[in-house]
């Protein structure tokens, strides 16, 4: 089997950047939507999927209009739930608790939030459910890191070394099967 292309695109800048945005639904700026549209131009895809949150849904709709695709909304591609921290600036949080979270988000999740392993399980199920054809998914930084872990085997310390700013694009060649494998083929801004 020759595999298929999978592109993961992080949403553009939200109207209030710098917040811990997990389940908080916040629109992207018009520039953020344009940034995503520019990243998607030239990608040959037959399937467009997006997190149901506005900061992914709106750029996916704009991309879909340009490429004659209707985005399928899949809530499994939403960001990690930051619990009590959701919608707050990192500078306003307990620095020690935040440090423990960044060091090990599975054993030190945000208060009332989601564990890293739960996010990985969600993304694993979403990846397993993909039809093996060229696909673009509008998502968030956490799910992109979870996909890097699942598809390429990167560990936690390696995952944090990836700079995934708003509008970042990861491209993979995926070979599905019992032992699914992938090759990271591009990182674009």
Quick description:
The chain is of the alpha/beta class. The protein is 33% helix and 17% strand.
Distance between the termini: 30 Å
Poorly predicted regions are: none
User: What global shape is seen?
Assistant: globular
Biggest sheet statistics = 6 strands, mixed
H/E order of the elements? EHEHEHHEHHEE
Question: Which key terms come to mind for this protein?
Answer:
six-stranded mixed sheet, 6 helices, 189 residues, 33% helix, 17% strand, alpha/beta
Structural overview:
This protein is of the alpha/beta class and 189 residues long. Helices cover 33% and strands 17% of the residues. A six-stranded mixed sheet has the order 3-2-4-1-5-6, with helices on both faces. Strand 5 (169-175) and strand 6 form a beta hairpin. It is globular, with a radius of gyration of 16 Å. The two termini are 30 Å apart.
Q: What order do the helices and strands come in, and which of them pair?
A:
Layout: E1 4-10, H1 30-40, E2 47-50, H2 54-67, E3 72-73, H3 95-103, H4 116-128, E4 135-139, H5 141-152, H6 156-159, E5 169-175, E6 181-188
Parallel strand pairs: 1-4, 2-3, 2-4
Antiparallel strand pairs: 1-5, 5-6
Helix pairs in contact: 1-2, 4-5
């Amino acid at each position: 089997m020759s595999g298929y292309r999978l592109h993961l695109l992080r949403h553009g800048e939200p109207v209030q950047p710098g917040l811990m945005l997990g389940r908080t639904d916040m629109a992207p700026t018009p520039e953020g939507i344009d940034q995503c549209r520019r990243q998607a131009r030239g990608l040959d895809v037959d399937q467009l999927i997006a997190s149901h949150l506005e900061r992914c849904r709106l750029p996916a709709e704009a991309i879909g209009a340009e490429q004659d695709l209707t985005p399928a909304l899949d809530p499994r591609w939403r960001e990690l739930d930051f619990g009590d921290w959701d919608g707050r600036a990192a500078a306003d949080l307990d620095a020690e608790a935040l440090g423990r979270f960044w060091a090990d988000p599975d054993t030190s999740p945000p208060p009332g939030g989601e564990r890293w392993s739960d996010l990985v399980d969600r993304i694993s199920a979403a990846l397993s459910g993909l039809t093996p054809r060229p696909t673009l998914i509008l998502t968030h930084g956490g799910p992109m890191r979870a996909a890097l872990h699942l598809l390429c085997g990167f560990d936690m310390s390696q995952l944090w070394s990836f700079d995934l700013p708003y509008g970042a694009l990861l491209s993979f060649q995926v070979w599905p099967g019992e032992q699914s494998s992938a090759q990271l083929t591009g990182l674009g801004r």
